[in-house]
Design a protein that fits this description.
- The chain is mainly beta.
- The chain has one domain (57-215): Aromatic compound dioxygenase (Protocatechuate 3,4-Dioxygenase, subunit A, Sandwich).
- The relative contact order is 0.20.
- It has 1 helix and 9 strands.
- The longest helix is centred in the first third of the chain and has 19 residues, at 2-20.
- It binds fe (ii) ion.
- Fe (ii) ion is lined by residues 74, 76, 159, 162, 164.
Length: 218
């Protein structure tokens, strides 16, 4: 009960903050734990028809949730990336993508202050191995939410589209990759996991995606 009350209060606060920022406010679901996947974006209301930013509506999580699948780090991680949630900068190739969601426990409790470290190729499948373009980390906010401004990564030999990440909770780091639905190269990629697919809405600009990072904190 206490968790429900806290989450409800946090959700109301998040909606208020979103409203102040001019983004689309979404009515939260009645239950803090969604029993099915919740669409993260909604059609803009008449009063916010120009809003194109994704608004995370609710936590897409059903307890007990399966923790994320840990996958290889790959060869292109660079240590000491900057703290930066906006990886998309002018001139970077690729379709703009806004990815939002939460870091949660297997009981679907949001985790504030979780560290999310992302790195990826640009839309042409190229990594910046000399600098830190498309590399950066962020902390989840008080509601356990994150927001990543980036591009959809391109293909490179042997790999389907993917975004690498490390998520750190309570000093333990989990490394894996996110994938994109409808990419024909997914099934031929030995690293691919369908459990790590983002939910994508390509009708928005930028394209919006959601993913819930489930971490086993037990
Ligand atoms: Fe990669």
């Amino acid at each position: 009960m206490m968790f429900r009350m806290r989450l409800a209060a946090a959700t109301v606060l998040a909606v208020l903050i979103a409203g102040c920022a001019g983004t689309t406010a979404v009515t939260p679901s009645a239950s803090p734990v969604a029993t099915s996947t919740v669409t993260a974006t909604t059609a803009p209301t008449a009063s916010s028809a120009t809003a194109t930013q994704a608004t995370t509506a609710a936590i897409s999580c059903t307890a007990p949730a399966q923790p994320l699948v840990e996958l290889t780090e790959g060869p292109y991680y660079k240590a000491n990336p900057p703290q930066n949630a906006t990886l998309r900068t002018a001139g970077v190739a690729g379709t703009p993508l806004t990815l939002t969601g939460y870091v949660v426990s297997t009981s679907c409790q949001p985790i504030a202050g979780a560290k999310l470290d992302f790195w990826q190729a640009d839309g042409n499948g190229n990594y910046d191995n000399s600098g830190y373009t498309l590399r950066g980390w962020q902390l989840t906010d008080a509601n356990g939410a994150y927001r990543l401004e980036t591009v959809i990564p391109g293909l490179y030999p042997g790999r389907t589209e993917h975004i690498h990440f490390k998520v750190t909770v309570n000093g333990k780091t989990y490394t894996s990759q996110l994938f994109f639905p409808g990419v024909s190269q997914n099934e031929g990629d030995s690293i691919y996991s369908s459990r790590m697919l983002v939910t994508l809405n390509t009708s928005t600009s930028p394209v919006t995606g959601t993913f819930t990072f489930v971490v086993n904190t037990a």
